[in-house]
Amino acid sequence: MIIIKADKITKTYSIKKNINIILKNITFSIKKNEFVFVVGPSGSGKSTLLYVLSGIEDYSSGSILLFDKELNTYSDKEMSIIRQKKIGFVFQSYNLIPNLNVYDNVKLAVILGNNKLDNINKCLEQVKMLEYKDYYPNQLSGGMQQRVAIARALVNDPEIIFADEPTGNLDNKNGIEVMEIFKDLNKKLGKTIIMVTHNVDLIKFGTRVIELFDGKILSDEKLY
After folding, report:
1. Helical axes 172-187 vs 142-154, angle rounded to 10°
2. Does the pTM exceed 0.90?
3. N or C: which terminus of the chain carries fewer CB neighbours within 10 A?
């Protein structure tokens, strides 16, 4: 089942009279339950592609089908519901609220999504952070904070998790621990994961890798 379909996507920025083309005729599809890595050098358009696919940024031309509907035809209300209930996002910076403890940081996502609180402890357990639920972000290591951020993205039971360099601020040990969690979310819970990374050593955790160069798809390879 295809969950995202991009067809000839172009993204441009205009600065005064200069037009910068960030994405150039990007075409591919992502099936449900895939774990797709997007790789490439800095400036190749990786993060921009992630933001465009998730609706955070607009695209200049082309077509994106998200859940079988053209992305730019969703109303603001419909898009808000999708962000609350059908997609989750994990960033390189953990974006935890410092004066809220672990439990309440995850709870906030539930409240914003108008969902029940029943899933919070379960999600914290899945990322091995339940015993730290009363801790505050400044009491946690970077790896622990990122696991809380994953729980927050997971708590509303999304179909797709977008992740932008989620191990970028972590050492190798914590990075591997975080990737094992993402792998379990994909394999055990069937979550579709689309992840940008600069670390090609991590792609072994995925099922597919798309390589960008200068805003174009250089290769698109299934790993298994």
Report:
1. 20
2. yes
3. C
